[in-house]
Design goal:
The structure holds 2 protein chains of 2 kinds.
Chain A lengths: L23 E6 L4 E2 L2 E2 L9 E5 L19 E6 L7 E3 L3 E9 L8 E8 L2 E3 L7 H12 L3 E4 L10
Antiparallel strand pairs in A: 1-4, 1-5, 2-3, 4-8, 5-10, 6-7, 7-8, 8-9
Chain B lengths: L2 E4 L13 E4 L2 E5 L2 E5 L1 H4 L4 E5 H16 L17 H16 L6 E5 L3 E8 L2 E8 L4 E6 L6 E5 L3 H16 L1
The chains are: A mainly beta, B alpha+beta.
Chain lengths: 157, 173
């Protein structure tokens, strides 16, 4: 495994639930799921989609978990670009928000959570597929590529 | 007239997806590419040339699909399920439909939600068809700007034909 930068380690730091609207959330993408024009909806999902938050991470740090990730891509989107809220079937209000879920070796780790009428949805089967697809499509139109496949920067700071 | 297979593996056509045509003996032009055929190959009759290059394209998509079965849990480095046999079977059926109607996919990939995704793009428009591990199928029509149209699809020859017609109408529209 690649060396984890000290800045990425948790080191007893507390959760930070304040996400600025302009903060980017990064997600690594398998090379086959990436295209020069972006990625398709098969690269993003709900619920609890893992991401790295920009406030505590560089985009390329999303590739440090394993040597096998060296050739992968990293894409990102701003917190304010999360498609939220979405109304489904005219009655169900769905909202989507980031949550800081720090790990010992990855303080930047966060997740995008889905809520139906304010209740956190934990399981994929509990999200309507049509709503899920709408959300994913709207999100991928906002994605920006930070690292192309096989282009991981060498800089660690 | 019986289809007649002609091996053109030594040729690198510029437009393999449209290289279908009728030829007679001799040096023939098929949509701009020239192929040398022999009288023995078609017995002096016109024949339908199923260009080997086109078959190779179809085979390449099929092979890509079959490889997805070998993916393991967490193939996306998070916790994605690998595509199930059911998802791959359904995708295989639809892929055959696309290819036989010369509507080749733009891409084919595993989906992080568990399944297989097939996309066909034309200009700014795309249709993304997702084959879920439990056998469900969903089609998403999007131009990247307006609200996407999403519908559930059932498995079946007629259903796939209907979806293909909708795809053509949307992408050509």
């Amino acid at each position: 495994m690649a060396e984890i930068p000290e800045e990425l380690k948790r080191n007893s730091r507390p959760k930070d639930e304040i996400f600025a609207p302009d903060e980017y959330l990064f997600r690594r993408v398998e090379p086959d799921l990436w295209r020069e024009s972006g990625v398709d909806i098969d690269a993003v999902m709900l619920p609890n989609m893992s991401v790295y938050r920009q406030k505590y991470s560089l985009p390329e740090w999303a590739l440090l978990e394993s040597d096998q990730l060296a050739d992968w891509a990293v894409v990102g989107f701003k917190v304010r670009d999360l498609p939220s809220p979405l109304m489904h079937l005219g009655v169900q209000l769905h909202t989507f928000e980031p949550r800081h879920i720090p790990l010992d070796e990855n303080y930047a780790h966060s997740e995008v959570w889905a809520f139906r009428d304010g209740v956190h949805i934990h399981a994929k089967r509990d999200i309507d597929r049509i709503l899920h697809a709408r959300w994913r499509e709207r999100l991928v139109t906002q994605l920006r590529t930070f690292v192309r496949p096989k282009e991981r920067p060498t800089s660690r700071s | 007239m019986e289809p007649f297979m002609v091996s053109l593996t030594a040729i690198k056509p510029q437009r393999p997806s449209v290289l279908v045509g009728r030829v007679t003996a001799g040096s023939e032009s098929v949509l701009g590419a020239r192929y040398n055929t022999t009288a023995a190959q078609h017995s002096g009759l016109g024949c339908l040339v199923v260009v080997q290059a086109m078959n190779n394209q179809a085979n390449a998509w099929q092979q890509k699909l079959e490889k997805l079965i070998k993916l393991e849990q967490g193939w996306d480095s998070y916790d994605a399920d690998p595509p199930s046999s059911l998802a791959v079977n359904n995708a295989r059926g639809f892929l055959s439909h696309l290819i036989s109607h010369r509507q080749e996919p733009t891409r084919l990939a595993p989906s992080v939600v568990g399944g297989v995704g097939i996309t066909r793009r034309q200009g700014d428009r795309k249709v993304y068809v997702e084959f879920y591990n439990d056998g469900g199928i969903l089609a998403l029509f999007s131009d990247g700007v307006s609200e996407p149209d999403v519908k559930l699809v059932t498995v079946g020859y007629q259903q796939f034909n209907g979806l293909l017609a909708e795809m053509r109408a949307y992408l050509d529209g």
